[in-house]
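Step 1: inspect the first sequence and its tokens.
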Amino acid sequence: MPKTARDVAFAVIAVAAIVAVSILGQIATFPNLVPWYASLHKPDFNPPNWVFAPVWTALYALMAFALWRVLRLSSATPGRIPAVVLFFAQLVLNAAWSFLFFAAHSPVLGLIDIVPQLILILVTAVLFARIDAVAGWCLAPLALWVAFASVLNYSVWSLNT
């Protein structure tokens, strides 16, 4: 397959995976914003709801770009396969979080998901950086946001137990 066609195919895979996770997250989240989430006690540092959509849009774009960069490397690149596997593992946890926190109405289940999710993001960022520095750095904002979200998730749980 010509390099250009291969790059386009990998872009489609990366974007499709991210879009699927975004849609799944929205399915779990939106029906539960009101009244359930709106009724929860939240910490003073909780951002307004409108902040989440643009932040996640930017993060998902960076994630897709990072994945695309790694996918298009030679399949013989040492560390490529484990890096991609871990990327998809953290992506599964990303999608699951919305179902655990919002759909199940359970901040504690969200917390149980988000901690290993953050660890996987950090490890994936390191593995990506070893084979493509740009791809690794593209995951840094995700790691920062999920670290913040972990603290927020913990705070919501502790304020509502």
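Step 2: inspect the second sequence and its tokens, then contrast the two.
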Amino acid sequence: MVSVYLDSSAYIKQFSQEKGSSSIRKIFEASETGRLVIIISQWTIGESLAAIDRKFRRKEIDKKEKEFSMIKLFEITVRLSQTGSLRMVPVREEIVRASWPLISMYSLSADDALHLVSAALGLASIFVAADEYLLKAAGKEGFETYNVENKDEEERLLEKLQLT
């Protein structure tokens, strides 16, 4: 079965309407029907909640939308985790330590380095993000990468996953 790693920039699109959201929703639907497994880091939850809060502070969404998005994030994550459709790589000391060399190797943020290690530990074959710099590093680490905000890559991803 195909395992797709979603970094926070991709994962959050399930809970908001923005460029690439429709593809991420198709990935979640495929996960729910057992056609693929979504892999995320436990860290993704915190980053996604922070992104929702940032939209609220920027007045891009109102308080009701913020609360709804946060609740949906927890509900969907827990439900998919319980069915095995989503696997969450825990943030443990040894995983954080394993990410440190990637920071200088690829000039990544600590968060992005943690995503790369989590994708490897989660045995993901496909790495999806909306961050070209992270995707470049993921490609060097051997992942098949897709930028969900790039229309051509988004179409290739959906084709690869047979979600068109």
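Step 3: confirm your contrast with the notes below.
The mean pLDDT is 95. The domain at 2-160 is CATH 3.40.50.1010 (Rossmann fold).
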